[in-house]
């Protein structure tokens, strides 16, 4: 995980413990197990305790074996056991490199499978499967995967040890659904695991399994491995518990229902528990119970992308801009309503209702009672609704026969939608926003329930409305902006600078002087080495330090808290945070399309001074524009032509008012303007170009200016605006760089400038003799684009330009006889940074 991305990634004490749990979906095959082993062994200062689930699908296979055994089908048992044996063998062979280690492990596995087979045959003979035997059989899945992981760790030279879960996790002994005795477990875990950890041994523990009465082995219910991890984390006072899963983290909702669902970077424990209860499948509802009142953060992180931070579940309350942080939909529900006047003021009706359902083993997902006490409604899984009705009719037989109760109404085809968030407490209007969003999308609310904790509001809706309901509520609470993307806050705009060169540093200097109500907040700086990021905004001190640091030529990653990453990685990592109206400002002169695409995909706006992205091949630029459109993002690029001059702005104004631009001409190179002015005054080329570089006019490689390529890019950007369909290769370019100087390293080129002095003096001499003035000129029409050196007469408008002056001439339908002319300095940090700032301010709330 990036060192600066979350608080949890701060350096930990040497003695700190990490608990890792790998879910079954992650442990699918040998390569997945190898990957898990790599994660366990990746260097960190803490000691690691590992909990594993059974390999993907193995628990179901073991349950099936138990069932076949119960009905006496030994053939099916044997086939399934052999299949499981082969699968585990394949993993063993895929994770171990030496024949000897493989042989030993395969032997161990064979013993375990032989015992499994014998046991299942015993069950088949008796045709009796007790809960105790079922648990014993099913626990084998986790035990086997723990054996595999231990062998894999040993094979990599680590010190690892299998620790039997039944000896560690003391429970209430309920087969199939045991719950840990936390105090007893705390004691045993510390006694057993602390000495191992002190000796730097990596303990590996089968999840889902615990110890019951008289040495019996029990299981903790489906999803119980999460519980094993949190129990161990609690007992060891771990610095964190990481649940490695096949999902990127806890999402704002089910992404299959709402494609714009986001990873929630941080949830409070109460929110996560509520979500788990209301059907977010990622976490077992009981998993967080051991952590009540103690602060051990739990991270749900993607196994496939171990660098991603996933979701932190902790006692913190962050993301306070979001009163609602997630919503959950549970489909396949039935609404059961018990109605009748006989309920009025009669104590115990609710208690009897729930007792009846509890005895029938039916779990109730939502309860609501009218304040008139005339009815109680509850949601149960639709497939249990007939059973629920029968149980209630039996319980209330007397009241029904006396007509004190009208009967049980059962509506199937229902779904529940619950919104969850700590910020709902005390924030008026949340329910009304939710109901309005639902009604605006035509969703009828059948019943409503709100806990007095105000942590959630749940509604019952028709199942067919689930998708529309989820989308509208997700939109209403801007959940597609959580953890990244743009939160349309009226008082904040978050800026990430890509490139901290001359323009970047000048922008950082002038930004605090902005006379706007909302000053853009610089949250991130990216250079070639990595990035510096703080979601709250980098402090003025940090920014000053970064400017000084970059000015001295050092990389950002040599600053404290900076993170090593490529530009696209940096954008992707920053985009996981909840930023307000984020903008990526590209101040490099590099091929940055991959980073820009990442930013657009996270709904960021883009400001470009870099010309390369928009002068890329047409297909790529069109795809970029389509991506921006799809994400409602804007790409502003005023400074790509004419630096701070209002070139794009004027073009937009012409077109918006119905004009049509027929051609664009002019001088758009500050460097070449300056150079030709100075050479015209008789200065040598080498001195003039040296000054242009020192004053910040040139591109990082001045040959981009001298070769005409910088002007060609600008010409292409302009030409494409007016309908040119070609690429950079279709622009006719005259290079002013002699052949011999074109491919040498830039440092060598800069040290040999004097060798070109004569050539330039001759060029200038010829022009002077002809009474002409040299200018590097562009001409762009919808069908042709050309850039090159011209010797113009002194009367020509371009001849009057001085220094870095640019001139852009728009010939339009309206300005046909007398074209629209924009003139002024077109290069240099001051004017360019001001132009970039203008673009940023266009995106900033007024
Ligand atoms: N200098 C000027 O007058 C004007 C410049 N521009 C454009 O502004 C951009 C920046 O110009 P300068 O600041 O003068 O250049 P510069 O060379 O001083 O700064 C560019 C910075 O970007 C960094 N960088 C390069 N590739 C990167 C990457 N892949 N990821 C992260 N960082 C990267 C470099 O390390 C450097 O610090 C250029 O595209 C230039 O064409 C536009 C108008 C005027
Ligand atoms: N190097 C460029 C800078 C602006 O785009 C120039 O000289 O014009």
From TrEMBL:
It holds the Pfam family AA_kinase. Pathway: Amino-acid biosynthesis; L-threonine biosynthesis; L-threonine from L-aspartate: step 3/5; Amino-acid biosynthesis; L-methionine biosynthesis via de novo pathway; L-homoserine from L-aspartate: step 3/3; Amino-acid biosynthesis; L-methionine biosynthesis via de novo pathway; L-homoserine from L-aspartate: step 1/3; Amino-acid biosynthesis; L-threonine biosynthesis; L-threonine from L-aspartate: step 1/5. InterPro entries: AceGlu_kinase-like_sf, ACT-like_dom_sf, ACT_Aspartokinase, ACT_dom, AK-HD, Asp/Glu/Uridylate_kinase, Asp/hSer_DH_NAD-bd, Asp_kinase. It comes from the Bacteria. GO terms for molecular function: aspartate kinase activity; ATP binding; homoserine dehydrogenase activity; metal ion binding; NADP binding. Keywords: Amino-acid biosynthesis, ATP-binding, Kinase, Lysine biosynthesis, Metal-binding, Methionine biosynthesis, Multifunctional enzyme, NAD, NADP, Nucleotide-binding, Oxidoreductase, Sodium, Threonine biosynthesis, Transferase. One of its GO terms (biological process) is homoserine biosynthetic process. It catalyses: L-homoserine + NADP(+) = L-aspartate 4-semialdehyde + NADPH + H(+); L-aspartate + ATP = 4-phospho-L-aspartate + ADP; L-homoserine + NAD(+) = L-aspartate 4-semialdehyde + NADH + H(+). Homotetramer. Bifunctional aspartate kinase and homoserine dehydrogenase that catalyzes the first and the third steps toward the synthesis of lysine, methionine and threonine from aspartate. In the N-terminal section; belongs to the aspartokinase family. This is ACT domain-containing protein. The lineage of its organism: Bacteria, Pseudomonadati, Gemmatimonadota, Gemmatimonadia, Gemmatimonadales.
